[in-house]
Amino acid sequence: MASSITKDNLFVPSQNKAEAKGDMTTRVAHSILHAEVIAREAKTARLRAARLAIEATQEPAPAKPARRKKPAA
Asked: How far is residue 41's CA from residue 36's CA, in Å, rounded to a whole number?
């Protein structure tokens, strides 16, 4: 046997109802936030790909001529 059995490792203390409910709420909240992050990143990637496809088909905008500076009075 790798480790000996003691009173500390034989019985795992259980959580009370408030702690268990809090842990469940935390897990659910984290899973919701994780799902939102995945959806946001997928939408960003899709929009970026669409923007790059549009930019690839458009001609570059002509450069504006440089403005002359007014001479000091």
From this structure: 9
**What pTM value is reported for the model?**
0.56
Write out pLDDT tens, residues 37-59.
999 999 999 999 999 999 999 88
Q: Give the residue carrying structure tokens 């009173």.
A: 7
User: Where exactly are the structural domains of the chain?
Assistant: 17-57
In whole angstroms, what separates CA 18 from the centre of its chain?
A: 29
Please, what is the end-to-end C-alpha distance for the chain in angstroms? 96
DSSP codes of every residue in 3-68: S---HHHHSPPPP-HHHHHHHHHHHHHHHHHHHHHHHHHHHHHHHHHHHHHHHHHSPPPPPPPPPP
